[in-house]
Amino acid sequence: MTIRSFHPQVRTLMGPGPADVHPRILEALSRPTIGHLDPQFVAMMEELKELLRYAFRTQNPLTMPVSAPGSAGMETCFANLVEPGDKVIVCINGVFGGRMKENVARTGGTAVVVSDPWGRAVDPQKLEDTLKAHPDARLVAFVHAETSTGARSDAKTLIEIAHAHDCLTIVDTVTSLGGCPVEVDAWEADAVYAGTQKCLSCTPGLAPISFHERALEKVRNRKTKIQSWFLDLNLVMSYWGSNQQRSYHHTAPINALYGLHEALLLLQEEGIEQAWARHERNHLALRAGLEVMGLSFIVPESERLPQMNTVSIPEGIEDAAVRSRLLHQYNLEIGAGLGELAGKVWRIGLMGYSSRPENVLFCISALGSVLNDLGAKVDLNEALAQAHAALGQA
Amino acid sequence: MTIRSFHPQVRTLMGPGPADVHPRILEALSRPTIGHLDPQFVAMMEELKELLRYAFRTQNPLTMPVSAPGSAGMETCFANLVEPGDKVIVCINGVFGGRMKENVARTGGTAVVVSDPWGRAVDPQKLEDTLKAHPDARLVAFVHAETSTGARSDAKTLIEIAHAHDCLTIVDTVTSLGGCPVEVDAWEADAVYAGTQKCLSCTPGLAPISFHERALEKVRNRKTKIQSWFLDLNLVMSYWGSNQQRSYHHTAPINALYGLHEALLLLQEEGIEQAWARHERNHLALRAGLEVMGLSFIVPESERLPQMNTVSIPEGIEDAAVRSRLLHQYNLEIGAGLGELAGKVWRIGLMGYSSRPENVLFCISALGSVLNDLGAKVDLNEALAQAHAALGQA
Hints:
The structure is a homodimer. Chain A contains 14 helices and 13 strands. Chain A is of the alpha/beta class. Chain A folds into 2 domains: 23-268, Type I PLP-dependent aspartate aminotransferase-like (Major domain) (Aspartate Aminotransferase, domain 2), CATH 3.40.640; 272-393, Alpha-Beta Complex (Aspartate Aminotransferase, domain 1). In chain A, helix 12 (319-330) crosses helix 13. In chain A, the strands form 3 sheets. Chain A has a 7-stranded mixed β-sheet with strand order 2-10-9-8-5-3-4, sandwiched between helices. The first copy, chain A, has a 4-stranded mixed β-sheet with strand order 1-12-13-11. At the A-B interface, helix 1, helix 2, helix 3, helix 4 and helix 10 of A face helix 1, helix 2, helix 3, helix 4 and helix 10 of B.
């Protein structure tokens, strides 16, 4: 085959991530590569940590990006904090809770599952009951914002319960960071990880993490070696730590880090509370339009994430046909269902730079038109009017 | 502190990597992000695998980039191929062999070390003797091109010996891929990994790997689960495999992969044998200049890598002062010594896009000038004339 430079057709990304990447971030990626121990680069790393602390609302010194995607951020938390034989309570209400359980197994821990329906928040009472039944548990892990369902759990309450039972916490904020309140210090979270390709509008490939001193103490006092050399925080911190003498661990993904620096700068310029409000506003406008179309959310209103809108696919409408038309006729990507929700739902993301009024209106227009083509009777006048009204009111 | 967009001072990168990144690759990084399951992206992934097979000189179907830096490529090989209790022969002749040993320990294997002096190739006879003494060994691991010393080992011979003793092989080609012959199929290598930021001229952050069917069989028939979820090839292949139905494992680093695609296209356009010849030619020119300066290589000529020129620091010359002047006065980065060579050598990289006549002449001029400033008596007329002559003769 003859291979040429890859110039993708531009899409509007309204799936579960990656979201649209801000042009300033794309430009940042193409800046000249310099060395990973260059004093200029080391100074940029310090800024990056400061900006991440702003995004996570924390003072944790160990706040940095892992040099790999969000899944590796998850693995960093489990590989460093779980020792063989440790009992870990894992709350599962979607795909990513399930992945946490798998991580516990692979680090030699024993997972005890707190199970909630997909599309619902984690039930604090169930966590409390489970902790009472397992007083030897060491850790509690849960997903703040379940990307597979669009449900938000009450992180503060879950962490309080875990701490009352002497457990440390691992919290997945992959989809929440930058899109709705993530309050690492106010929650007293012990270890959190996130992704860059969701509400930070950045490209995928990095996993911001933040560890409280309580969690670091556990890492330092392990009886066994961390099974991953690449993710061993004791080693990673010799490069990312704040001591003057940075020593080489692995070669950092220089240009990807330029992108994250720019993404976090954009967040700081907008103001994080303003970014949360924007996500909420655009969500309400999309919701108004989707409801006119007869599409209902699978998550109860009080547990809904503004950045991840999961709606049931109407009876008689074929999932793949709709997504394929949106992609090929409108260059619009929306997300399919994952796991037990495959074929049953669409996941419409309004994350980061994708969370804009123009995307809300475009999505309603395109999805409504495709549904009408397939025989539905969507009143687009009304759907767009309701969305416009919601945008105006905000 | 007030944080602004990061616009680094441009450097010439002649250290151990990252090397200078070709402008076409920097441009590729800034192309619009699309989804990791977008049919356009999936088609690009197929091209990427084909281009990597060209670079590795292999037909191995499992040839793909791991979504993390070279160190994670190393860990992918060890985590998938070593089971607890396995005995692994690790050849150490520099920093990266030592890191392999650490990987064996963390996967629960037992490492038996074949030790050679830093700056020398791995001695095949020692490997043979060690394998005879350890007939229960399962794997042999070695570094083809030791980035910490600039020594090249005879991969074909080492693999032949390993196979004669029923061992699979793990070969580090991080610094060799694209810069000197790497012949995965002709060598009959079982598992190899590389980096992108060396002789492929790309940004750091990805680790190309290639696994032969023999190695995959071992992965499939493991008695124990692979301890890393993120690096488990059984799972990764559900996304990178060639089946039509790609399923989500982790979110691929989209834009970084655009960059690698462009880098490999550049390699194919030049022709891999031409790229090897270019690395050799520029190395000979640099060598001619360095020898006039009185700088001697630590690696014997027959074991020298053209892309990694390691020379002893002259008596009385302070390592850090020279590198600092080069960086601040000339924006030129050369590499420091690592491990037991720290303070004793400089590592001058001529990798990928950095391997150009202009860089050879610039490095000789700048380094010679700095040494003269510090009291050395370098004849730059002669050094440059010799380098010019070597370039002309090639």
